[in-house]
Every structure is written in structure tokens, then in C-alpha cells.
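Recall from the previous lesson that a structure prediction takes nothing but the amino acid sequence as input. Here we apply that procedure to NAD dependent epimerase/dehydratase family protein from Occultella aeris. The sequence below is the only information supplied.
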Amino acid sequence: MRIFLAGGTGVVGSRLIPALQAAGHDVTATTRRAEGLDLVRDRGARGVVVDVFDAPRLAEAVAAAEPELVMHQLTDLGEYDTAANARLRRDGTANLVAAAENAGVDRMIFAYAPGDTTATEDDPLEPGSAVGILEAVVHRLPRATVLRYGMFYGDGTWYAPGGRIGGTVVAGQLPATPAITPFVHIDDVVSATVQALSWPDGTYNIVDDEPAAGTVWLPVYAAGLGAPVPRVAGLPDGTPRRRAVSNARARAAGWRPRYPSWRDGFPTL
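The prediction returns the following C-alpha cells.
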């Protein structure tokens, strides 16, 4: 299958390229900067420099690739700039969908990064929420698969030793709260995304089998890093506790996470 991968140098996209190639797919992958071309090419894809906010250039790049499927793996989380990531999701996604429509592509796999999942795929998203609007835009295409990822951990993520969260925990600055986090190992993100190419169109939660409160997972994670035992704290007023998230639909489609629980994949001394 000819795939246009938007976001070929990110934590997911860079791992997806060789996995897609190994599965027999032909990949054109984007990078925002010319220096990212070598990474894309070394991993086995054709690279194209394009900024998704440049709608005319993006439309030109998608049309030139002549893809059968457009895959959205765009994030802007490197500097923890949530405003930039929100703009990328909102405006970048709209431009990518429009480019796919203009090129006559009728299928997209849209995946968005941690923290915006619900209990099951059939539960409605918050009315008027940014994520709900995004999914509606993607569903303008005749065929759409939406992957709602859990919180990434593993090499290259914030939860890797030395990563943003890892460093905060080692410094004793992250309290354990009742907030529930649905995790997913980055290797399982890649395997699910590749397998989703053959799944029926629809929405899938890509999370492990054990969503857990911070009072449960954080002490285990901290111990694996040799960090201080986290202090326990309640949630600030108005902070949502979140709900556990089911991966039953992805499992029914045939996905089996290599790390069924964060207990299996967290760093250990």
C-alpha cells in the first residue's frame, strides 16, 4: 500500500517507517526541517519537507505521493508546548484532511497523542471539545480509522529514564494522586498502528490492560528509577480523575500488546 505518513520524525512516526516497510508498504514521510530527511531516508521512506500549516505545499506533497492512505502522526510535544500541539492538531489536521480530499484519497488513519481517551470508544467525547472537533474533521473522509493512544512510555518518551517525567520523579517533584492513567508502551503503539491498516474503519483505544491511579503506578515507576518514594496528594479542585479505558475493541481486532501492563514495561534497576 502507498502511504503518506505525516510526521515521520516523531517518537511514533520514526518507529513506524521501518515497521511499515517490513510489512510491505511504500511510505512517503514528512519532516518539517531539511535535517530530518536523512532520518526518514535511513529508516526506509521517501522524505518530503513540508509544514502542515502551509496548506498549498501540503496539498502538492500529498498529490505528488499518490497515496492510497494518509496517516496522521503529527505532534508538537518536544518542548511541552501544549498550545503549539493544540494548533497542530486543529489546523494541521484540517489541512491534512483537505489535502487528502483534494488528492482523491478516501482513507485516513488519524492518531492523537496521550491524554485524550475515554472509557470506551462508544462513549461520547465532551461536546465542543477540541478532540471531538478533530475526529469530526477526519470523518469527512469516506473511510477513517481513529486511534486514541494512551500515555506513551518506553525509550524516547517522557517516561524513559532521563526523560521529562523520569527526571521529575527522580527529583521527587511528582506526587502520587488518584488520577487514572491509561498507559501504552511505544512498541505496542507501533504494532497496533501497523495492524490497524487491516482493521475495519472505526475508533480504537490503544492502551494496555491495566489503567491505574497514580497512587498505584507511580511508586512502582519511582522504585524502578531508584527515585524517592512519591508523596501522596489529592487532586486539585476541578481536576478530573479520569476513567479507566478499555482496549477490548483493538483486542477483538487481533491486537495483542507485548506489554499488557505498565508493570511489564516500566524501567527496573
